[in-house]
Amino acid sequence: DLAPVDAGDDLLERAAALLERGDAAGAVQCYSQHLEDHPEDAQALIGLGRARLSEGDFVAVQEVVNLVDETSSEYNVAQALLKQIELHHSCAQAGGRAACAQKLLADPDDLDARYQFACCAAAEGDYGDALKEWLEIVQRRKDHGDGAVKDAMVSIFHLLGRNNNIVGEYPRLLHRALY
Radius of gyration of the chain from Cα atoms? Predict the structure, then answer.
């Protein structure tokens, strides 16, 4: 008695594996195919959003994320994907990661430069560096950026999941620095 294989699950697994390997276009194809039959599958919408983000297609990310229902368990992840778009824009406005690194080297106490450098790190998927730099800012001045630093960190926690090794102790350290 073998349970029938759900082709939908298979497509989601394949899409996730493709995205993991860096094949965003292949992942987009699988997620899109799955969504034809399951248009409200939040997990697939999030996957498609992640794939579109890695392609740099921010308009598509927004369109997909807007389809995730507020009551869905994936809603916080959807909002975190939107935050990633903001981080990409902050990085671009600051001149990119190399420019931000130079500003930070010139003045390690420039918390705005540190924030922008961390935004660039996150935009490139280097979440460990981003979290480290943002925590440094909060530890130095917890109200810096009117909560933007905390919001950025929390978005990474949602994006990666609390059990991710990169997230590790950061939620606890952030809480300790703020309260």
Answer: 18
